[in-house]
């Protein structure tokens, strides 16, 4: 064991002298997270939706008054009263209002008598959201009137009421409370700020580059001829591999931990529950080491190992959603992303950042550790190609 620790310390000293390792482990991921955070800062700012609507009440009846009262209850909308349809059309055409409602003359009387009545909505094609809301409001009001009208018609036909009582029935029907209503509730938001998302993404993406020098170091030792000297010493080949692996593990842990602290303090990222973050960092480094070790066993030279590890890290990192949420992609992409340990790391860290605890990330943690065991186990079986026994 002392031999493995000595080899690991030698690896760490060597990598600290090589400033490129520090750049890959910390400077580049932190720099990219900061750049993305500053570039997309405005995306996270909540902007209140507002709209301006015009109303041309040509009817002046009680139902027109009821409709204007409905519009007045829209807290996001500013209502402008106009006298003619032409004025409403002109305001909408020049973009002064997002949409206009026209209550035609005789609207209230037509509805009361059961005749066809139209409530007109004029929308600005450049204000699609406000226009859709306007159509929805008008449609909801019309549906309510249709429901009342249908109730009145059924009452007159089947209840033995005199047609002269229609107005009384209308008033009573309008006063009957709805038997079924829609209750709106909003779940606790688990959307992340761009700063937190990219802090997580860059840490996950670059840890797969950071740890790859551990396994690659064996090929470097073999190419330089120093591996043969280690093997003739009273040191088992397994301890040589353990020492190289331990060095990569320490660098990976330090790198991710430093990024968590730095992005929290300097970029105001919110990683969530510290215990859950620590456990997931541990599992993430292990899975990165397993992938790196397996890829390295496929190479014959350090250059090949570096190339293979970089390709695997980039492809799986993109597939795993470190640069963009995979939820925005098609179903096939979301399914394929589960083949990447990065996807499970991103899911776990995002659950923590969204308010979750260690108990909420057990599935992600289990998947990450499974990748570490499977990939690392296959690499261990192939380790004889790197270190002759």
Overall mean pLDDT: 78
Strand order of the largest sheet: 2-1-3-4
Give the termini separation. Answer: 18 Å
Strand content: 5-15%
* Largest sheet report: 4 strands, mixed
DSSP summary, beta strand count: 4
Fraction of residues in helices?
55-70%
Counting DSSP H or I runs of 4 or more residues, the number of helices is 16
Write the layout of secondary structure elements.
Elements: H1 2-17, H2 19-39, E1 51-57, H3 62-72, E2 77-82, H4 85-93, E3 99-103, H5 107-112, E4 120-123, H6 128-158, H7 166-175, H8 194-210, H9 212-224, H10 226-232, H11 237-266, H12 274-296, H13 302-319, H14 331-337, H15 341-353, H16 362-381
Question: What does this 3D model show about the protein?
Answer:
- This protein is mainly alpha-helical.
- The protein folds into two domains: 236 residues, no CATH class; 125 residues, abc type-2 transporter like fold, CATH 3.40.1710.10.
- It is built from 16 helices and four strands.
- Strand 1, helix 3 and strand 2 form a beta-alpha-beta unit.
- The chain starts with a helix and ends in an 8-residue tail after the last helix.
- About 4% of the residues have low confidence.
In short:
The protein is mainly alpha-helical and 389 residues long. The protein has helices at 2-17, 19-39, 62-72, 85-93, 107-112, 128-158, 166-175, 194-210, 212-224, 226-232, 237-266, 274-296, 302-319, 331-337, 341-353, 362-381; strands spanning 51-57, 77-82, 99-103, 120-123.
